[in-house]
Model the fold of this input.
Amino acid sequence: MQHALQVLTIMFMAAFKFLFSGLISFGMGYSFVETMIYMAIGGCIGALVFYLLGKTVLEWFRQRYVRKREARRLKGIPTKKIFTRTNRTIVRVKHKYGMLGLVMFTPPILSIPITSVLAAKYFKHDKRTLPALIGSILVWSVVLTTMWSFLR
Done:
């Protein structure tokens, strides 16, 4: 029972803060291969859940925005400015680095939930997004497990 709880703890940590899950796993006494597998499974499950949940929630917010904007237009109230300085910066970064830049560099830095929601927001129409995100997590689980194994 305790072993299952420890494994779930590692997977849960990998789903939320991927960078430190290997350290926790090695601290619990797991081997290199076990750590890599638990990190990969937890990270992939977290990416899948947050990507799909993010798509659903973001679509709900988009529909809400469209309804409110239409209500404002019907009342004769001017609509809000769409292209702000922040929006332009986001679009510039998106075009410069693209989906591969997002999925290759942000899972360990930002965390899997934030990366998955950003991918769902900006790249939901690209069918390669979720496989690229999962592939990135698999690669990062090997890299981070190797890094933490040298530091323990």
In short: Residues 2-151 form one domain. The chain has one domain: 2-151. The chain has a mean pLDDT of 89.
